[in-house]
Design brief:
This protein is α+β, with helices and mostly antiparallel strands. It has one domain: Ureohydrolase domain (Arginase, Chain A, 3-Layer(aba) Sandwich), CATH 3.40.800.10. The chain contains five helices and two strands. Strands 1-2 form a two-stranded parallel ribbon. The longest helix has 16 residues. The chain starts with a helix and ends with a helix.
Length: about 120
Amino acid sequence: RKIESEEKTFLTKHNIKVFSEIYNMEAAADYITEKANSHDLYISIDIDALDPAFAPAVSYPEPNGLTPKEFFYILNRLLKIKSLKAIDIVEIVPEKDKNFDNRTLRTTAKIIEEASFKQ
């Protein structure tokens, strides 16, 4: 996945781990869970992390994103963290979704539903 130079600088400066391509969902979820368990956790879901086949109505669609199965695996692991305080979802462009039968909005609704029932 593409990272802009300003983002890379910020991430490096703040020692933030980036999973640009995740091949092992369990290892990624373990890493995130381990780091987050001792701190308040705020999850910001950038919907364009999902592959455009599942969430096409975003600002910058990039191929090779997460599948819903991969995404929900990680999300469900994170929702179990007791220090979770809030979740937001960004980068949805509803006007674009009209061309895709509201696929992105339906995926977003499923994320909200999943997160709501876990809290």
